[in-house]
Amino acid sequence: QSVLTQPPSVSGAPGQRVTISCTGSSSNIGAGYDVHWYQQLPGTAPKLLIYGNSNRPSGVPDRFSGSKSGTSASLAITGLQAEDEADYYCQSYDSSLSGSHVVFGGGTKLTVL
Amino acid sequence: QVQLQESGPGLVKPSQTLSLTCTVSGGSISSGGYYWSWIRQHPGKGLEWIGYIYYSGSTYYNPSLKSRVTISVDTSKNQFSLKLSSVTAADTAVYYCARWGVAGNFDYWGQGTLVTVSS
Q1: Does the pLDDT value for residue B107 go beyond 80?
Q2: CA–CA gap between residue A35 and residue A31 (Å, rounded)
Q3: How much is the pLDDT for A8?
Q4: Where are the alpha helices (DSSP H) in A16-94?
Q5: Which residues face A61 on adjacent strands?
Q6: CA A79 to CA B98: how far, in whole Å?
Q7: Of the candidates A65, A88, A107, A93, which has an alpha carbon nearest to the alpha carbon of residue B104?
Q8: Is B27 helix (H, G, I), strand (E, B) or coil?
Q9: What is the average per-residue pLDDT within A45-57?
């Protein structure tokens, strides 16, 4: 299982707001490491959606927002559109006895109803 | 605009070594400031970080794969490579190369290449 825990799926109707959670622990998110989010459309490579917990790269609509608190982070999508249907992944860094390394969440499939 | 492109065999036999190369264009690996990474995605599954390399040759690997992974860089060709030894069917995946910045995120990705391990 993944070091970062995400719900396997979420859904919402067009125009609605959905949130995707990413739960970690004291060795990753809780240790102060930033959380980043990626969107993966079917058959394509992941695309950076949110970096540094809450920052959007150029070109990403402000419908997408991120936040972080304690050992968790969240991605919120407002004004849901059909084109938002994709898999979403959170990513951070983990430092433990086994070593320090990049970690991903298991991914969340967003279905637009 | 930085672009990355994976290349290599799409089929590898069990127990052999998987070898992939990532060619970077639109930017120089030697300019520094970034780590050059490999990430894989098993069919229908999530993302798994394999490791990354700095232009100087410093490498960092996923502890779960460390014993089988070697990442190298060729700055003269603006390429970096992945070798994964003793592969099994469990190594069948889409392999991506990506750029990792000091901000801790992957900002540019290759399109990915499917590698199947089968006899």
Answers
A1: yes
A2: 11
A3: 96
A4: none
A5: none
A6: 30
A7: A93
A8: coil
A9: 97
Distance, in Å, from the CA atom of A80 to the CA atom of A99, rounded to the nearest integer, reads: 39
Would the CB atoms of A52 and B103 count as touching at under 8 Å?
Answer: yes
Residue pair A21/A74 in contact (Cβ under 8 Å)? The answer is yes
The β-bridge relationship of strands A36-40 and B93-101 is unpaired
Confidence of residue A96 (pLDDT cuts 50, 70, 90): confident
CA distance B63 to chain A (A): 7
Using the beta-carbon criterion (under 8 Å), do A33 and B109 form an inter-chain contact? no
Please give the pLDDT value at position A1: 79
- For chain B positions 100-119, those within 8 Å of chain A (CB to CB) are 100, 103-107, 109-112
What are the respective helix, strand and coil percentages of chain B, to the nearest 5? 5, 55, 40
